Amino acid sequence: MENNIIFGPINSRRFGMSLGIDLSPSSKQCNFDCLYCELAPMATVSQQSQTIEVKKIINELKTHLNDKIDVITLTANGEPTLYPHLNELIDAIDKIKNKTDTLILTNSANLVDENVFNTLLKLDQVKLSLDAVSNDVFKKIDRPHSNIDINDVIKQVIEFSNIYNGKLFIEILFVHGLNDTKEEIEKLNNVLKRVDSTRVDLGTIDRPPAYPVVGISYKELYEASLMFDNSLPIHIASRVHAEPNNAHYSDDEIINTLDKRPLTMDDINLLFNDESKKRLEMLLNASKVIKKLVGNLEFLVPHNNLKRKRIK
Ligand code: SF4
User: Fold this and answer.
1) Which residue ranges have their beta carbon within 6 Å of ligand 1?
2) CA of residue 308 to ligand 1 center, whole Å
3) pTM reported for the whole predicted model
4) Which CATH number fits domain 244-312: 2.60.40, 2.40.10, 1.10.10, 1.10.150?
């Protein structure tokens, strides 16, 4: 049952070369039953009934760990913070990881548990999902366990971000017709302005979902990204169904666009036509646009923008 604890390494755009640890390898154990989950639908749980020993994880990890790994990623078929020995596990990983970072991918709900909150503070990187902030939208998309209240979760996400010293990533996954409305994005924006994050990744459904829901297009993601405050480190993380936009931008339009929303080269390749890409190249050569590393990703920003934007 415990054969698939370690997986990868996989080269992730967002986090680098990642070696995964699956804290629920035998079955899905989650406190959410998200519409978009890539695992099969399953009744929610508030704790794991099948657990693996820390010793077993560490022994397996030792045989796979090498200096090419950027990040050891704690994840699960389900929610990794339900693993009851998480604190002990992180302490044990810290003893053998050398310079490799530790990362957890969590749905945020267990931040209301003081032990989990304090345990996550020990990690080098944390990715918190926050798909919705309205109770009804949250319940429709993430279908949480009955004891979970989104307002408590939001409070803890804000509090965590203010205390945490590592790299904090927030992820919003958009589902068509649910959390992609102007009203919900405005509410998400208001919450995110209070969260001190390294980067906010906007994504959508890229893999077959548990329930019959659909994602939004790259263009819709881009439009959603413009609705967020331009002081937020927003990144469009999903481009599976992206169609080239081939739009023309003058020098001023390039500067204004990047001032409003810094973009990666992958975004530029989708949004700009060839002539605009050449203009951008010239602006880069003249240092009017420069490259800025956020987490593992390189963004293009106007030179002046760096002076007034917070960089964590
Ligand atoms: S939190 Fe993750 S594992 Fe759990 S149901 Fe949602 S997508 Fe699936």
Assistant:
1) 30, 32-34, 37, 39, 78-79, 107
2) 37
3) 0.89
4) 1.10.10
